């Protein structure tokens, strides 16, 4: 589910970060989801089993806020309107709230897969002793 990220490599190089930051801000604003009051994690497709499980793990208030944001954005989209500028999602408010759950679930699934594919064999000395 998780996409590869260049962010760690960019963050290690201040000169590259200074060059990329204005470009990333422009791209985020051009995407338009903040103008509808959405956060980046609101755009993740719910049809994925991992995302569906992560949504179940959200705190009730966060889940309610997410549904509110999605319904409001849908209404705005249907009426071809944008929120007033003071109601747009601010960059400091656009933090990942679902990604940590998704990473946790992917780790659990990988661990479960490793445990299910494990082959257990007796040691030769125990097999000869009849244990």
Automatic annotation (TrEMBL):
It is a peripheral membrane protein. GO terms for cellular component: mitochondrial inner membrane; respiratory chain complex III. The keyword Nucleus does not apply. It is found in: Mitochondrion inner membrane. It comes from the Eukaryota. Pfam families: UCR_14kD (PF02271). Its main location: mitochondrion. InterPro entries: QCR7, QCR7_sf. The keyword Electron transport applies. Keywords: Electron transport, Membrane, Mitochondrion, Mitochondrion inner membrane, Respiratory chain, Transport. GO terms for biological process: mitochondrial electron transport, ubiquinol to cytochrome c. PANTHER family: CYTOCHROME B-C1 COMPLEX SUBUNIT 7, UBIQUINOL-CYTOCHROME C REDUCTASE COMPLEX 14 KD PROTEIN. Belongs to the UQCRB/QCR7 family. This is Complex III subunit 7. It comes from Didymella pomorum.
